[in-house]
Design goal:
Number of helices: 4
Strand order of the largest sheet: 1-4-9-12-15-18-21-23
Number of strands: 51
Structural class: mainly beta
Length: about 625
């Protein structure tokens, strides 16, 4: 068919098209509503179009050669509504235009509802200063944009959860706002559920160019409008990209939380809905039996957030969403602080909740829509958590016996010692200890003395720390001190690491194979608090004096009993080693800080440990 122009100078001609009619146009032809001419003495020529189809009988406009670019689309002239009238397109399918499938210039025509606008060489619908009303329509697979808006008038696009529109698989932007008005189009479907992805990849507006108007799109719908044919929905739900989940219930709900669809995922984490025909905006809800995973976040995640905030290493859009734990739509130091508190246990839940579900891209193939959805714990910025086995520790702990046995109500400082050379940007420690034997009072970083974030619960001490300035630690350096109050006389205090420990470098990369050391504190060495000698037969001639001392101790051993001698500090760290001592030998320890030390003496078949005190 050639071009059709609907125009009248004294009356308002109307083209009425019945349901089920298909009109195909040849090259360089179009359907035009309204005109501007002087052949009858009037310059303005109005006209209307009423194309009212039904769900079972769509009205279609396309190219005769069945090729994209095979005709010039539908054009609503600026004079089309000059004399009033109404223009409706309902259950209409428009495709294959050489430019825009539908273009409206400075007119309120048309009112579109339940229209399917697709496969244009340019944009699906172009509105130039046209305050049209567009409801419940789909714009997809167009060569440039799904919807192009230009000029100052404000169109109505969807607007509520009953009349939402769908945009997907357009080569440019789904919505390109080149005008200066604010466009409110919440509940729209964009083939994506990640708000940052929608804002940056699907919509062009004020965020991209400050002279343009804003497009307000949130919340978004998960399932598009079904126009004419039912939809088939398939998908998977995994933790991250490959962590299979089962026993997960998948629900499609409207925004009043009414269930529209429901199923349960299979053993391979897949789900399926058939014969879907939804008329209201919706979202998917995933209900699972898993509580918030212990160790899902740690100090490394907090460091990654700070590196992103300071533009040292940027997160991906999905990572940004996971990092925005307070729901502020920005990622900054507050999020890092909340993540650290969540790791140690000072925070039971993030302001945004625990679970994040992201579907970066809905794959559309005709009326089949595939949802490959990932679940993440909020705050797991590096996506390191493995849902099937938990977060395994990457640190080994060596323990050693200390010669010092504290008593009830005594305050002690317990070192955590590095057994390697490390450059640290983040520390995440889960230290298991007997809470009936000791009460944790504080934790501090040894090099700076700065307090560290910590929390105790159920025989576990969680410690978290991060810094943009890496901490250089050498082999056998004390990394941190734990200050504790002893609750029992002659306590038996032994330490282990829980499953949620990690060290990371300044780039927030995990350090594999890290080793730390801590002292066990138990009454196994037979410490004697002496002021002079001792009375055991093999040791009765051995004396250590003066005690207390200002820094020099004399060991008297006339029988040459001592073969080896070790000097430890109060935390069990070896200070000095000696052997083959003369009958009287002096040990100078004035270079050490005042406090309690232990001299461990070894004979041929026995040992003796003595407590000595260095005073100022």
């Amino acid at each position: 068919m050639g071009s059709i122009i609907i125009r009248g100078c004294r009356n308002i001609p109307c083209l009425n098209i019945k349901p089920g009619v298909s009109i195909k146009f040849t090259n360089n032809t179009r359907l035009q509503i309204g005109d501007y001419a002087s052949w009858c003495g009037y310059m303005e020529h109005s006209g209307t179009l009423n194309a009212i189809g039904t769900p079972d009988s769509l009205i279609t406009f396309s190219a005769l050669n069945d090729s994209i670019g095979g005709w010039d689309g539908i054009f609503f002239h600026d004079q089309s509504d000059n004399k009033g009238g109404e223009c409706y397109m309902t259950y209409v399918d428009v495709s294959q235009s050489n430019g825009n499938n539908v273009r409206s210039v400075s007119t309120s025509f048309p009112t579109m509802e339940k229209c399917n606008i697709h496969h244009a060489l340019s944009s699906g619908l172009k509105l130039e200063s046209s305050p049209c009303v567009i409801k419940s329509s789909s714009f997809h697979h167009n060569g440039i944009h799904g919807l192009f808006i230009y000029g100052g008038n404000q169109p109505t696009i969807g607007g509520n959860y009953m009349t939402y529109c769908s945009f997907y698989n357009n080569q440019g932007y789904d919505v390109y706002q080149d005008g200066n008005q604010t466009i409110n189009m919440p509940y729209s479907f964009f083939g994506c559920t990640d708000s940052l992805m929608v804002a940056t990849k699907k919509i062009y507006d004020k965020a991209d160019n400050s002279s343009k108007g804003e497009v307000k799109y949130w919340p978004v719908s998960w399932v598009p409008q079904s126009i004419g044919e039912d939809l088939q929905l398939d998908g998977t739900i995994t933790y991250g990209e490959d962590g299979l989940l089962n026993n997960v219930t998948v629900k499609v709900q409207d925004f009043m939380n009414n269930n529209l669809l429901q199923t349960t995922v299979g053993a391979t984490s897949d789900f399926h809905f058939s014969d879907v025909n939804l008329t209201t905006a919706n979202h998917m809800v995933f209900e699972h039996p898993y509580s918030y995973a212990d160790g899902a976040v740690n100090a490394t995640d907090a460091l990654k957030v700070m590196r992103h905030f300071t533009h040292q290493s940027l997160l991906s859009p999905t990572q940004e969403t996971a990092a925005d734990v307070n729901g502020s739509c920005t990622v900054n130091g507050t999020d890092a602080m909340l993540i650290l508190k969540r790791y140690v246990g000072l925070l039971e839940e993030f302001p945004v909740g625990n679970c994040l579900y992201i579907c970066d891209s809905v794959i559309a193939n005709d009326n089949n829509f595939t949802y490959n959805t990932q679940m993440y714990w909020y705050g797991d910025v590096d996506f390191s958590y493995n849902f099937t086995r938990g977060d395994n520790s990457t640190i080994q702990l060596e323990t050693y016996n200390t010669a010092y046995i504290p008593q009830k109500n005594e305050t002690i400082r317990i070192p955590v010692i590095a057994k390697g050379n490390y450059s640290l940007g983040a520390i995440s420690l889960d230290i298991l200890y007997p809470e009936t034997e000791m009460e944790i009072v504080g934790v501090e970083l040894h090099q700076t003395g700065d307090p560290m974030t910590f929390h105790t619960h159920d025989n576990s001490l969680r410690i978290g720390w991060y810094s943009l300035s890496p901490l250089a630690v050498s082999y056998d350096d004390t990394l941190l001190y734990i200050t504790a109050r002893v609750l029992q006389n002659n306590p038996d205090i032994r330490f282990e690491l829980g499953p949620c420990c990690a060290l990371a470098d300044g780039y927030a990369e995990p350090i594999s194979g890290a080793v730390l050391a801590m002292p066990n504190i138990s009454d196994i060495l037979g410490v004697e608090d002496i002021q002079g000698g001792n009375t055991e037969s093999v040791w009765e001639q051995v004396q250590v004096y003066p005690n207390p001392s200002h820094g020099t101790f004399t060991i008297s051993d006339p029988e040459h009993v001592i073969q080896n001698l070790y000097l430890y500090d109060v935390c069990g760290k070896l200070v000095e080693i000696g052997s083959s001592y003369a009958s009287e030998s002096s040990i100078r320890i004035s270079n050490l800080t005042p406090g309690v030390y232990f001299i461990r003496m070894e004979a041929e078949d026995s040992t003796k440990t003595l407590k000595v005190v260095v005073e100022k």
